[in-house]
Amino acid sequence: MIDLKDVSKTFTLHNQGSAVIEVISNVSFSVAAGECVALTGASGAGKSTLMRMIYGNYLTQSGAIRIGDLDVVTAQPRDIIALRREVLGYVSQFLRVVPRVPTLEVVADPLRALGVPAEDAHRRAMDLLTLLNIPEHLWTLSPTTFSGGEQQRVNIARGFAHSYPALLLDEPTASLDAANRDIVLQLIETAKARGAAIIGIFHDEAARARICDREIDVSLFAPKVAA
Amino acid sequence: MTPLLSVQEISKSYGTHIGCADVSFDLYPGEVMGIVGESGSGKSTLLNCLAGHIAPDFGRVVFDTRIDGPKDTVTMSEPERRMLGRTDWAFVHQHARDGLRMGVSAGGNVGERLMAVGERHYGDIRHKAADWLDRVEIDTDRIDDRPTTFSGGMQQRLQIARNLVTGPRLVFMDEPTGGLDVSVQARLLDLLRGLVRDMGLSAIIVTHDLAVVRLLADRLMVMKSGHVVEAGLTDQVLDDPQHAYSQLLVSSVLQV
Fold it and tell me: Do B240 and A11 touch (CB under 8 A)?
């Protein structure tokens, strides 16, 4: 489902003496449907960068990143937009929303974008918010004022509203208490069982052991420093 | 799929000064494109060339018309282009006063555009105007008041109602949130986003506010000295800018 071939990434900082930072090079791996792969490696190794490259958020200099039939590296913006709408979900650590939009709408939004009628989208959103223990009296409020853990759960509810065939999870269980962490892990297991290909970053080792089939150490892709 | 708007090699100079040079892109139905750049970068010149307000020196602006299919709007006749401006196109000005008739009531402002496309039944027109005032969150009790009695944010929302009442397919916006305070901006952005999704609008938004494009635009074009220096997916250009100028622009934003 997700297939990376010889992927490399450098950042060129034009305004800071044209410094070139090589982050990762020659990354190749693939993730099958129903498989969950963890990216590991020390902070700064390039886990999130790699994930953002797969999502099309960071530009990839060379190689190919195939998701289904689409190569993210060479795809047109509108193809990536369609891919994100239909195929590829992404749960980041931070929630970014339009001010003033109620929580229920934030969660239902991915479904509404797919053309699901408002009523059905709202029902799905309510189910997820209930499952993730977001109190009902908060649903009509904008999540911008919520606590960190609540925002994270709203973000997860949003990411799982549509049954994406491929999912990217960046620290989905960080800043959650044990009970909520367990619920999120169950959501991921359910997604896996229905055949989603999942790539995740989990600092929580127990979580990794429970849901991931393999681990990929990103620090192995660090460019070799010239002697 | 046919692009709704296909812009090909548009150039416009003012004497020896370059307004915009060799700009090309395709906009597809339902897409929102942002154009950013500092003042003087040529973004408003480009928008005005696209919307037919000024004639480009060179290039084609091909619009997929409902009846005749793709047609170059630069070479089409003036009446034809004006008709387009009243029906399928809308233009939201930075200053609401430029897009409104200040001496006419709010309802009249919305109704005028309906009459321009042939509506004649007073009851229907008033009903539609009231419906649109409600959609842009203006109290329908204010329907007979002139826009001079409205706040800046209300005027801007009225301008949007006036523009969208005829169900356009393409909206040009020049700094739609410029000069409004942030709470009003947020409300307007939320409104625009909802309208874009529910009506399936395509839009081209010129702004210097990167937060606005992040929320509204699917794609982004960065302009400098009349040239497009970078274009791509909005979040990709903002999070991983490639060109020196885009990097400078993104890193210059103050964090709140």
Answer: yes
Interatomic CA distance for residues B210 and B238, integer angstroms: 8
Label residue A227 by pLDDT band (50, 70, 90). very low
Residues of chain B neighbouring A15 (CB-CB closer than 8 A):
244, 247-248, 251
**Residue A68 region by backbone torsions, left for phi larger than 0, else alpha for psi between -120 and 50, else beta:** left
CATH number, domain B1-88+169-177+206-256? 3.40.50.300
Give the closest residue to B249 by CA, choosing from B33, B20, B34, B38: B38
The Cα–Cα gap between A159 and A149 comes to 15
Q: Is the distance from CB of A2 to CB of A30 less than 8 angstroms?
A: yes
pLDDT single digits (tens) B87-145: 899 999 999 999 999 999 999 999 999 998 888 999 999 999 999 999 888 999 999 99
H or E stretch at A2: strand A2-13
Residue A128 is predicted with a pLDDT of 95
C-alpha dihedral, B113 to B114 to B115 to B117, nearest 10°: 90
ipTM score here? 0.87
Average pLDDT over chain A, rounded to an integer: 90
CB contact at 8 A, A58 and A52: yes
What single letter denotes the amino acid at residue A182?
D
Beta carbons of A15 and B244 less than 8 Å apart: yes
- Strands A214-217 and A197-201, by their bridges, are unpaired
Residue ranges per domain, chain B? 1-88+169-177+206-256
User: What one-letter code names the amino acid at A159?
Assistant: G
A52–B239 CB contact, under 8 Å: yes
Per-residue H/E/C for A40-98: ECCCCCCHHHHHHHHHCCCCCCEEEEEECCEECCCCCHHHHHHHHHHCEEEECCCCCCC
Distance (Å, whole) CA A36 – CA A213: 6
Secondary structure E strands in chain B: 5-14, 17-27, 32-36, 58-65, 69-72, 89-92, 170-174, 202-206, 219-224, 227-233
A78 touches chain B (CB under 8 A): yes
